[in-house]
Amino acid sequence: xSTTQHPLASTLSLRLCASAALLACTSLAQAxxxxxxxxxxxxxxxxxxxxxxxxxxxxxxxxxxxxKVQTIFVEKVAEGDSERVVRDLAAQGAKVIFGGAFxxxxxxxxxxxxxxxIAFEHAxxxxxxxxxxxxxxxxxxxxxxxxxxAGKMTRKNVLxxxxxxxxxxxxxxxxxxxxxxxxxxxxxxxxxVWVNTWYDPPKEREAAKTLLGQGVDVLMQNTDxxxxxxxxxxxxxxxxxxxxxxxxxxxxAQLAAARLDWxxxxxxxxxxxxxxxxxxxxxxxxxxxKAIIYDHYSPKLPADVRKLVEQRAKDIISxxxxxxxxxxxxxxxxxxxxxxxxxxxADKLKMNWLVKGVIGGMPQ
Length: 364
Hints:
globular; 6-stranded parallel sheet; 364 residues
């Protein structure tokens, strides 16, 4: 016996099939939608220095994850404007947002509180939240290696540092540079000029010229442009690439470069978010994690000095010779860390004093 389907039932079946197909297509499209990842930089995304190092990290994320992610960035963001920028990235659909400057901290805390579904990560800060992690690189290890070379290459025993702000991160770098130079040359003194800015090439240049005029012949900058290195090159002094290779501007006057590879952290965070296992943490990477890469040596650097600094790097990685191993004595002659003791990370993170041999104090 044959049966005949009612025309209305047939039409309904077709519509149900079409609806099911549409839902399947929609689900497939949603599944294929890339993870949007935002980056906020305090300086320019091109050239050299701190922000460019973060930009190289972003590029590596895009290369690593391909069409699984869509990365976007905003450059030259003033610290006081960071919250607006971070909130705008959240409104654009970013599910991961990295803030690459200490001064972005409070703005990110506020934005994280109002956007619980977004993973926020802040570089160099100390405030966390249920959806806000912090991360940093032990830049003082690179500063130590710079000091090791500087102590050997100086003819006048006078080193110089162009420094931005007297926050613990910068104080650590200044102290590490001086201590590791003194380890190979006890006669070393380090002069410092504070410029109260992260990125201002003309101001950085003037600070460098001031130091060079005071007899400095090896210069390190903790600011974000290559201007201090250029100033050193112009008068036949030495300098370093900081955060990125700066040999394009310094040429053979760049003794070496302490490069930062932020992709070590960025790739892990993105992978964790994609796998739905991300949790905010407190991450501090260094040479042993390959987050600092020390290379781009000047062809004028003597082979024995290069061998010395490469061994120093190995000793930091192995723990044989920590950077802040006592005795550590401050400018007033007070012993801050006893002989044979290593400074705990908790004390490094709040360092607010300068070691003996640094000439000049810290601005209030």
